[in-house]
Design a protein that fits this description.
172 residues, alpha+beta, Beta-Lactamase, five-stranded antiparallel beta sheet
Length: 172
């Protein structure tokens, strides 16, 4: 059940005390969402569980960011990312996501936790500009090469800044 809603210009703003938590299996299917996740997503819990986490994906998010995220977390790495999500009604909300693998007793990855917090207005400006550039690179490259094009642009920008991805994200 993908969110087929059209995006609107209505923004939902997280408060400093809001914490959104969700958990997925290794394929990205939701297995848990806290009350704040349910509230911001606009979906009922029963409509979220078992669905792909991208049910809240906003079309303003570059595909390359999600490829980068999955490439890292599937290797057991923790990742921070700014994400623009979309609610069931088309409104949007920005989050700073911290995504970490969840392991079983034998050390095998069995899923992923995502904890999201509020984002500063200045960070949104910086990240929104970056994501617009990445989306344009994806559009110019076409669907088949979109992820590579936006990741190449991200790599180029980070090299120009002399920063790693994590250094950049945490500095914004």
């Amino acid at each position: 059940m993908k969110n087929k809603t059209q995006p609107t210009s209505k923004e939902l703003v997280m408060q400093e005390t809001d914490i959104i938590v969700s958990k997925t299996d290794t394929k990205g299917r939701l297995t848990y969402g806290n009350e704040k996740f349910i509230e911001f997503s606009g979906f009922a819990e029963a409509d979220l569980l078992g669905q792909q986490h991208n049910i809240v994906r906003h079309p303003d998010m570059p595909r390359g960011i999600f490829k980068f995220l999955w490439d890292n977390i599937s290797q057991g790495k923790e990742l921070f990312a700014y994400v623009k999500n979309m609610s069931k009604d088309g409104s949007f909300y920005w989050v700073m996501a911290n995504v970490t693998p969840d392991y079983d007793a034998s050390g095998k990855i069995v899923g992923y936790f995502s904890v999201r917090r509020a984002v500063s207005r200045s960070a949104i400006q910086t990240i929104d500009n970056l994501y617009r550039q990445m989306l344009e690179a994806e559009k110019q490259a076409g669907a088949r090469d979109a992820c590579d094009a936006s990741l190449n642009l991200l790599t180029q920008i980070l090299q120009e800044k002399g920063m790693t991805y994590e250094q950049f994200i945490l500095s914004v």
